[in-house]
């Protein structure tokens, strides 16, 4: 990649962090004009910026208003870049994800960042929102025949619902993969609860999801 292309990616990233929609639009258009791969511009520019925004939010340096303005800047770039992203051939096997914040928990910024990353990468998302009843995760995963269920919690008092949901999912829909995340959750807890994956942030959640989809592809019977 050329120095010019690196500069464009950095402008996209910083434009999101600085919630500067004009800067993002200008950088997105330059990306198209100078032949930067639109998918690369989205993932390594816009999404990279939003990942940093998530870190700032977790550190209490950014709050909900700033995060929402950053998201507006990101979408301003997406509007320009996304129509030019080439369709990726996944052999007809598209990843579908059910996502939501568990019952009793109204915090959804982290969940929304993960959702955004998944959408950018081309996953089909079924967002249940926040304060989602345990049974709803199971019902939606079966209704949509989704590949992955993502559970988010931001409080220790609500994360205790996660193992209950995982147990329900295992009994009703054993094929589905389960990912957990949120401030009080750890990799050790995820393993103890029987989750298939754990993600400390949106970028890691996306990579975990891709790994899960690749595993499911390998398990698919050959027609």
Tell me about this structure.
With 223 residues, this protein is α/β, with parallel strands linked by helices. It has two domains: 3-84, Methyltransferase, Methionine Synthase (B12-binding Domains), Chain A, domain 1 (Orthogonal Bundle), CATH 1.10.1240; 96-219, Rossmann fold, CATH 3.40.50. The chain contains ten helices and five strands. It has helices at 3-17, 21-33, 38-58, 64-81, 109-121, 134-144, 156-159, 161-172, 187-193, 202-219; strands spanning 96-101, 124-127, 148-152, 177-181, 197-199. Strands 2-1-3-4-5 form a five-stranded parallel sheet, sandwiched between helices. Helix 1 (3-17) runs antiparallel to helix 4, helix 3 (38-58) packs antiparallel against helix 4 and helix 6 runs parallel beside helix 8 (161-172). It starts with a helix and ends with a helix. Mean pLDDT is 88; it is low at 89-93.
What's a quick, concise take on this entry?
The chain has 10 helices and 5 strands, in the order ααααβαβαβααβαβα. It is an alpha/beta fold and 223 residues long.
């Amino acid at each position: 990649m050329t120095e010019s292309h690196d500069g464009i990616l950095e402008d996209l990233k910083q434009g999101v962090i600085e919630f500067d929609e004009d800067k993002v639009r200008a950088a997105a258009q330059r990306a198209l004009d100078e032949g930067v791969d639109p998918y690369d511009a989205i993932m390594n520019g816009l999404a990279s910026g939003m990942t940093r925004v998530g870190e700032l939010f977790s550190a209490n340096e950014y709050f909900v208003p700033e995060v929402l303005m950053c998201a507006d800047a990101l979408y301003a770039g997406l509007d320009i870049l996304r129509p030019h992203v080439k369709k990726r051939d996944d052999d007809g096997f598209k990843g579908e994800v059910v996502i939501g914040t568990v019952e009793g928990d109204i915090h959804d910024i982290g969940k929304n960042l993960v959702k955004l990353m998944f959408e950018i990468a081309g996953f089909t998302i079924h967002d249940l929102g926040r304060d989602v009843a345990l049974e709803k995760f199971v019902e939606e995963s079966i209704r949509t025949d989704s590949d992955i269920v993502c559970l988010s919690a931001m409080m220790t008092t609500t994360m205790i619902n996660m193992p209950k949901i995982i147990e329900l999912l295992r009994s009703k829909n054993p094929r589905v993969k389960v990912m957990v995340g949120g401030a009080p959750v750890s990799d050790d807890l995820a393993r103890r609860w029987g989750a298939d994956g754990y993600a400390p942030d949106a970028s890691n959640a996306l990579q975990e999801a891709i790994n899960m989809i690749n595993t499911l592809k390998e398990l698919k019977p050959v027609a």
